[in-house]
## 1
Amino acid sequence: TRDLVLDVEDRAAQLAIARAALELLQEGATQEEINEYQARIAQAEATLAERQADINRAQADVARAQGDLLSRQGSVTGSDIEAARAELQEAIAALEDVRDGEDEAVIAQARARVEQFRVNLQAEKDRLAALKVQAEEDVNLRANELRNVQADYSRIYWDVREIERDLNSVEQQTWQELKDREEAALREVQNAESRLEQARIDLEAARLAEINGIQEAEARLEEAQADLEDLLTPPKASNVAAAEARVARARADLDKLQGAQRAGDIASASAGVSVAAAGIDTAEAQVEQAEARLAEAQASLEELTRAPRDPDVRDRQARVQQAEVALRQAELALDKAALETPISGTVVEVDLEEGERIDTSTVAVRVADFSEWEIETTDLTELGIVRVRIGDPVDITFDAIPDLTLPGVVSEIQDIGADRQGDIVYRVTIKPLEWDDRLRWRMTATVSIEPTRAEAAPASEEAAPSGTEVTE
C-alpha cells in the first residue's frame, strides 16, 4: 500500500495548498504591503510637488527673460521692477533654505520609509525561503514516487521476459493481461518522470524567484537609505553656489532695470525668452509623468485593499472542495486495500506474498469458525438417500482416534444428486452434538446413520469447521 499512502499524502498536500490560497484571498493584503504602497504614494506626491515647483521656477525664468528683453528694448515699466524685486526676494529665500538644510518632518518620513523597506526585505526572504523549501520537498516526494513505480515496472518487466521463453505453457488471455500490466507500469514510470521533472522546474523557479525577489527588496531598501543619506548630508557646495548665483543674477537684473538702460543684443534676449518658455514645456511634461505615477500608485493601493470578488472566492472554494474530494478518493482507495473477513474466527491459511497483486477471484485468506463443526459425506447413493431424513441420529468415529465415538444428527440433505463414476450420489451434512479438541479440520470420519424408517446408511467423509468454503 506504499503507493496508496503516498497518493493520500500528495492529495493532503494539494488540499493544504488550496486552503492556503483561499485564506490568502479572504485575508487580503498585509499591513506591510499596504505600508509599502502608501510609501510609494507619498514618494509620488513629493515628486509631483517638486515638478510643480519646477514649473513655477520656469515661469519665473520666462518672466525674467521677458523683462530682460524689454529692458534691452528700452521699455521698462514699474511692474517690471516690482517683478525683479520679487524674484530677488525669492532667490534670497531659496538660498537660505539650501543653507538651513531639509525639514525634520521630511527626514522622519525618510527614516520611516527605510525601516519599512527593511521589514519588507526580511518578510520577502522568509516567504521566498518557505516557497523554496516546499518546492524541495515536492521534488523529494516526486523522486520517491518515481523510484516506486520504476521498481514495479522492473518486476513486471522481468516477469514478462521470463514467460516469453515458454509462451506455449501460458494461456493467451493470461499473456495479454501480463503485457497490459507491463504497458501500464511503463506509463506510470513515464508519468512519474514527468511529474519529477515538473517538480524540479518548479524548484528552480522558486530559487530564481527567491534571488530576484530578495534583490528587488534590497534595491528598494538601498534606494530609501540613499534618499535618507541625501537628506542628512549637509548642503553641497554646488547647490549653495547655484542658489547664490541665482541671487546675484536677480540682483543684477533689478539693478539693470533701476539703473541706466544700456543697449544690448535684442536677439540674445529673445533667445533667452524662448529657452525659458521651453523650460516650462519640459516642466509641464514632467508634471504629467509624476501625476501618472501617482495615479498608478493610488490605483495599485486601491486594488490591493479591495475586498475579494465573489467569483474569485467561489473559484477558490471550488478548488478546496475538489481537493477534498480527491483526498477522500485517495483515502477510500487506501481503505479498499485492506482485506476484511465477514465472519469472526481464526486465520488458518494465508495464500499471499508481500507485494503480490490479486483479483477478486483469488482466495487470499482462509478463516474458520471453530465454535461449531460439521461433517459432510457424498457416499450415499440414490438407493440409500431415500431412507435418510433430517434429524436422524448418527454415530461418528474417526480414523485418527479409533476409540472415540461422537453422537450427531443429520442437519442437511442435498436436493440434487451428482454423477460419480456412474453412480448418483448425494451430499449429506452431519452436525456433531459433541466434539473433541484433538480433532482437526479435514480429518477423515466415518458416520453411521440410523434412519427412522430403514437400515443404517454408513458413510465416510472429512470433518470441517463451519463457515468454510468446504460447506458452500
## 2
Amino acid sequence: MSEYLAHSAQLYFQTNGKRVDKDYENLLLALLVNEYSRSRIKSTLQTLGLPYREEAIEDLTDLIYDHLDAYKTSPLPEELFAVFVDAYHGKLRDENGKVVDVSIFIALGIDMDGYKQPLGYWVKQGKENKDFWMEVFQDMISRGMSKVAIFITDDFRGITSVIKRLFPGSDHQLCWVHLKRNLKREFSGKGYSQMRMVLDKIRSSSTIDEGRGYFKELVKLVKDRKKALGRNYEEKEDNYLAFYIRRR
C-alpha cells in the first residue's frame, strides 16, 4: 500500500496537474477500500503534500455503493458445481454512532467449467439463524441460481436445514478447516494431537466406509472429553463426509 501511495504522489508532482484528477481519484479509492477513516485519509494526503477534497470522497463513496448495489442484484448462473459460504466477523459503527459486532457472509460459486464467481454478501448483526439463511438463499434463487451440486460451509446455525429444504438434491459439506480450528481451540496437548491424526486418516481413506470408521473414532475421542460437542459431530457425520459421496 505504501508503494502505491508513493507512486501516486510521484505522478501528481510529475504531471503538473495534467493527470492529477484520475490519479487522485485512484489514490482516494485505494484509501477507502483499505478502510482508512476520513481523518486518516486527510493526514495521509497532507503527508504526501496532496489536497484533501471532501467532495471527491463523497463522490467515490457514492460510486462504491452504486457498484455494490449492482453487484448485489446481478443475475447468477442457473447451475453451479459448488457454492462456498464463509464469514468475516468484525465491528461496524451504526447510524447512531455505536460500535456493534457484525458478521459479513460471502458466497463464492464455482461453475461447471471450474471458474470462480462471487455470488453475494450479506451483513448480519448478532447471531445467524434459520430465517437469515432463508433470506440469503432465497436471494440467490431469485437471481437465477437453481441447481448446485455441493455447498461447502462452516457449521453456521440453521444453515443445514435451509439447504436441505431449498436444495434437496444438493450435498452439503461442512468445512474441515473450521473443524480442525474448532478442535484445536477446544482441546490441547495429547488430546488434540490424537484427533489431528485421526482427521488425517479420514481425509486419506480410500472408501466412505473406511472414512466413517475413522470419523466414529474421532467422535469417541471428543465425547470422552466433551460429550455435547461429540454428539454434535456425531449428528453431522454425513455433512462432514459429503466429499466422499461427491468423489464416487
## 3
Amino acid sequence: MLHALELTDASGRPTDLGRRIAPLPVGAREARALLEGAAMLGDARAAAEVVAAISDDHRDADADLGRMLRELRDGRGPGAARWRRETTRLARIAASDAAPRGSDSGLSAPGGSDSGLSAPGAVVALARPDWIARRTGPHDRTYLLASGTRAALPAGSALSASEWLAVWEVQRAEGRAAEGTGAVIRTAAALAEEDALAIGAGLTSDERAARIEGGRVRVRRTRRLGAILLAETPVAATPEDVGPAFAAHVRERGLDALAWRPEALALRARLALVHREIGRPWPEVDDASLLARIDDWLGPDLSRLRADVSLHGIDVEAALRRLLPWPEAARLDELVPERLAVPSGSRVRIDYAGDVDARPVVAVKLQEVFGLAQTPSLVDGRVPVLFHLLSPARRPLAVTDDLASFWNGPYQQVRREMRGRYPRHPWPEDPWTAPATAKTNRAAGR
C-alpha cells in the first residue's frame, strides 16, 4: 500500500513524500490525500474538507461524497460541527507542511469543465488510487475498480451519470442492491478522466496480448489502469508473439490441443510408471504438471511455429523427452522397455496405458509363453507384468501376473475348452515342457 501511494520506493525505503507524512498525526492514505490534494488544488482547506469527511463516520444514502460535503458545509446533519473542527485541524497540518510538492508531482488542479465537481474525487483518488473505478456500461450502475473488484452504486444515485469515480468505501452485499457484483459502493465522488489517468499513472500498464483465434495468432496491444481497460488495438504478430500465444492456447484448451500419437502416449505412460515407483528425478507427467512446465518441454517447438500453422505438426514424443533427467535417462528402456521378449522369440509390445494405478500389460497368444514360470517384472523388479493370454483368434483366455500358478491350475480347464475349438494349434497336456510357438501344428512341423 505504501508503495502504491508513492510513500516508499521499490526497495521499501521512504520517499521524500513518505518522510514528510511519517510524523503526521493522520493515517497514511489520508495524509497523502491531504498533502498532495492541497498542492494539487492550491487550497489546503478544500483538501482538508474531503479528508475530514472520509475519515469520520459521515455517510450519504446515495454514496455521493460531493452532496455530503455540501450538507456538511451548510451545517446540516449530525457531526457537522465535529467535521468543521477536524477540517480546521487538517488544514493547519497541510498549511504547515514545509516542503509542498510542486510541479514534480506530475499532477495539476483537476481539469475539465466540471473541475469543481471533480476536486473531491481527485483527493479521494490520491488516498485510494487502487479504487479508481470506471463504469462498466453506458447505463450501468456497476463499476470496475482498478484493483479488479466490481461494485454497484445504490439504485438512483446521481453518481451513476459519472463514467469515472473515486471510491472510498465498499461494503459486501447481495441481491439487487449489488447488481450481482457482491458489493455496494457506500462512499465515492465523481472523477474526471484526465484526473483518473494522472493520479492512477503508477497503475497503468501497456501490454501485447497474443491469442489463437481461428487457428491464427492474433495480437492486441492493451493499455490498462490496473484492471480497467483503457484501450485495445490490433497489431501485427511478430515471431516473438507466436510461442507465448500457442502456450497460452494449450494452457486454456488443455493437452488435448496437441496431436498425441501412439508413440507419445506410450512414452508418457512409461514415464508416469517410473515416477510412480521411483519418484524424483523422474518427472511428473499428469496434465497439471505438464501444463505447469509447458515452457520446459514444449516451448522450443512452440517458438519455431509460424503464426499460421497448426499445433498438430509438433512431435509430442520428442518434446516429452526434454523432461528426461540425465544421466538417469539412459536407463529408461531398461526400467520400462517398449517390448518384452517371450519364449516363442517374439517381442511383444507392452501396453502402459491406463489410469494412474494401471499395471503394464502384455497381450500375447497363450502358446507363445509355454514354459515361462517367472513372471517378468519392470522398474527394477517393482512391477510385475500383467499377462493377457489370448486364444489363436486373439480373444482373452486368462489374465494373470502369476504364470506358474496358471500352468499348474487353470490351464487344464482352458485346454479342455480350447483344443476342440482350435485343433490346428498346440494344446499340450504339459505346458512346462512344450516348445513355445506362434505357429500352428502344421507350420511348426515343416
